[in-house]
Amino acid sequence: MSLLDLSRWQFAITVMFHMTFPAITVGLSIFLSVVYGLYWRTGRAVYLQMFRFWRRIFAVGFAIGVVAGAVITFQMGLNWGVYGAKTGPIIGPIIGMEVVTAFFVEAGFIGVLLYGDGRVRKGTMFVSTVMVSLGTVLSSTWIIAANSWMQTPAGFKVVHGQFEPTDWMRVIFNPSFVWRWPHMLAAVLISASFFVAGISAWYLVKGRAKGFARRSMSIALGIAALLMPVQLYLGDNVAGHELPYQLSKLEAIEGDWGNGNTGFVLFSVPDQQAARNIAELDIPCLGSYIAKDLTCKTAMPGLKLTPAADRPDMAATFWGFRVMFLAAVLMFGTVFAATVLRMRDRLWTARRFHRFVLWTTPVGILAILGGWVTAEAGRQPWIVFGQLRTSAAVSHLAPGEVLFSVIGFSVLYLIMLVAYVAYIVRTMRIGPERDDPRHEPPPRTGPPPLVELPAALGPKEVAAR
Amino acid sequence: MTTTLWSATVLLCLLMYVVLDGYDLGIGVATLFERDPAHRRHMLESVAVGWDGNETWLILLGVALWAGFPLAFGTLLPHAYLPVIVVLFSLVVRGVSVEMASQAPPAPRWTTAFGVASLLAAFAQGFALGTLTSAVHLRGDVYTGSAFGAFSWFCVLSGLTVTAGYTALGYAYTKHKSTGLLRQSAARRGVVATAVGGVLLVVLLFAVDATAAPLNLDSPGRAFAFAVLLLFATGGAGTSLITFPWKRQSGAADILPLGGLVIATVSVFLALGVARYPVLLPPGLTVDSTAGPHSTMVFILVGIGLNMPLVLAYNVFAHRAFAGKLDTEGAHS
Asked: How many C-beta atoms lie closer than 10 Å to residue A295's C-beta?
């Protein structure tokens, strides 16, 4: 494997691992705000129970997302030093804005969100929770602005090989940002909804903590039902507004090499070298229908239209898109079924549906990962589309150094992922019963405090003043 | 002008990071010397409420360098590749361990992982800072060094000094936040860590002249500022050494060790900055030769600069919300 391949694998591993966590925590932080707001307004114990339980799952996921995100910032200089030096004047300030307007907001209020329960007033608790979710949303905004600029660069000139901003409005509100941003926000809300609904479904299947589980699932599936149709519309527009700038990505997504296929390629094993598909399964005419031509005459453009040196890897782009698309169809079907069941008043008795929802827990996260593979692999061989090649952006490191980091990250991240899943399973088994304020456990017996000095006040007492 | 202002911002981020994550990593190192599991827990919990904010300064440091001095960002990180990778590995393990241990107690393995990762992170950070004294290899503007080319004994010395300094800060913070036996042991060990850090620092200041980036004290202004700052550092460290052992519960006994060490740390970094400016990496990478274009400088000075007061306010809020001592007498352990 070459230095370039190693660096790309390293980036793929670290960024996919990182993305898994925002896909859970951005939406979950908004969910926590909603739930705590409901508790604050209504005073009903079940909302506090929900807040406490979901916060346990949020806390660790958020921490992993933060530290794995920090890694990516430094990789831009470590492994992509030439990219860092050339795009720094544009990408650097955008990420800088993310740090000051989002990371510090999250960091400032996360302590209260996680440990302030019972130590601060309800209003402070609510504001802190809302501030954390605001931080996560702003963070996604800046990240999408930066990545969209790499997809559809605008508002710059090149001086001595370095990108110089000439119009910041055009840099930030670049052509693909406008649609990719709402698309991404809807995506993280939906993925978190399925995550919450799936875990809640487990309790319904087990017949445990029904009040808690029903309310969690009801909110989650309700949000998903509202957002799924919107998301299909947004996704279609992302394609419509980004692809005129990146035809090569569209060609790779469609899975055709030559022109003339009016069908939709459902399954394919592409051979990049020979520029043909080894195996392929089409749905006739569907490609033409998707292009809004019902006469079955509009053909999909093939990747051979793009010169061989500028072609993205078809397999990664094609399958990344298929994963996202099929997951979206599955999720749409799920929320459609949920809505029908709800209208017939059968949502809480449909046991097979609960079992099914349990299996859809990770589907939203998979859809997001698939979407990112499409966006990133489909942009290749460019790191800044049409301007800077990925092969020209990599740091000139010793391959051994990079191999060390790839192996290190892979092992470390695998352990972290297993630990997080094990933690979720353990938290689920222990269950939300301990978080129910109506069943406070009796105070633990033990020796009384040895001294009662005024200076020995805990944070609880100090903050309560 | 814009370049100088932005250099000051980068330096501010560095100082904030070193002081804040310094105490935070130092507490982690200190847990390794603590036998009592309840004490270890209390120390970890004092970190749990603030580590995220402290670490965010590291990200801002990196990004401030990237935005303002892109060429420096793109060469400095490959130059210090392996130590920085170790820092990142350790910070990942640390962040996850803190949350795992505080969300699902008792978690002895996560607590140990927290300590070991803190030690590794502190040492690797010092080591990475040490590589800033070895010459960088460039072809044109592009980094072309070898994997171990930037390493030297000086890096090891720098790693040890930073570890000792962080540990001293960690003990000072622990003394500030605790009561009873934990407070006593933090006071005792804090003296040792401060003394070791001080001795190592003196050796380091002599050793730096043998590297590719010796101290530049040619002009009287520099020499004067350097001397004054070192005087401050000595005063700060001296204050800590004297006040660490104060046993009586009083504001001064709790604040002065920490305050003295913060002053010492900031002064040392400022002194090294004075003796180095405007070199970023020897021999030829300077603040001016790596600065980004004017349009970027204006954007970051306005956009990020105006947010700085807010950022500091969030930091103050986060620390105020958990002000006061942890109940370390064992009632809730």
From this structure: 9
Per CB-CB distance under 8 Å, the chain A contacts of B305 are: none
Pairs across A and B, CB distance < 8 A: 280
> Is B37 contained in some domain?
yes
For residue range B69-99, list pLDDT tens digits in order.
999 999 999 999 999 999 999 999 999 999 8
Range of the domain at B302: 2-210+292-321
* Residue B219 one-letter amino acid: S
Asked if B130 and B154 touch (Cβ cutoff 8 Å), the reply is yes
- Angstrom distance (rounded) from CA A225 to CA A368: 17
Closest CA to B286 of B216, B210, B209, B207: B216
**Residue position matching structure tokens 């990219």:** A83
The predicted model scores a pTM of 0.91
How many structural domains are present in chain B?
Answer: 1
Provide the pLDDT for residue A260: 77
HSE toward the beta carbon, residue B243, CA cutoff 13 A: 24
Q: If pLDDT is split at 50, 70 and 90, which confidence band does A425 have?
A: very high
Question: Between chains, do A426 and B52 touch, taking CB under 8 Å as contact?
Answer: no
Q: Which residue has the higher pLDDT, B289 or A438?
A: B289
Q: pLDDT tens digit string along A411-422?
A: 999 999 999 999
In chain A, where are the structural domains located?
175-397
101-140 in chain B: CB under 8 A from chain A? 103-104
> Does residue B220 belong to any structural domain of this protein?
no
pLDDT band with cut points at 50, 70 and 90 for residue B61: very high
In this complex, do B321 and A114 lie within 8 Å of one another by their Cβ atoms? no
Instruction: For residue A318, give the H/E element and its range.
Output: helix A314-343
Contact A76 B66 (CB under 8 A): yes
Instruction: Tell me whether residue B158 is in a domain.
Output: yes
- Asked if the model's pLDDT at residue A454 lies above 50, the reply is no
CA-wise closest residue to B84 among B98, B71, B73:
B73
User: Which residues of chain B are within 8 Å of residue A106 when distances are taken between CB atoms?
Assistant: 52
Closest CA to A181 of A219, A121, A123, A138: A138
Examine the predicted complex and report whether its ipTM is higher than 0.90.
Answer: yes
Task: Pick the closest to residue A328 from A361, A297, A368, A288 (CA basis).
Answer: A368
Q: Quick check: is B217 in a domain? A: no
Percentage, residues of chain A above pLDDT 70: 94
CA distance, residue B91 to nearest chain A CA (Å) = 7
> How confident is the prediction for chain B on average, in pLDDT?
90
CA distance B240 to B258: 7
Q: Does B170 touch chain A (CB under 8 A)?
A: no
Cβ of residue B330 closer than 8 Å to a chain A Cβ: yes
Given a cut of 60, whether residue B330 has pLDDT beyond it is no
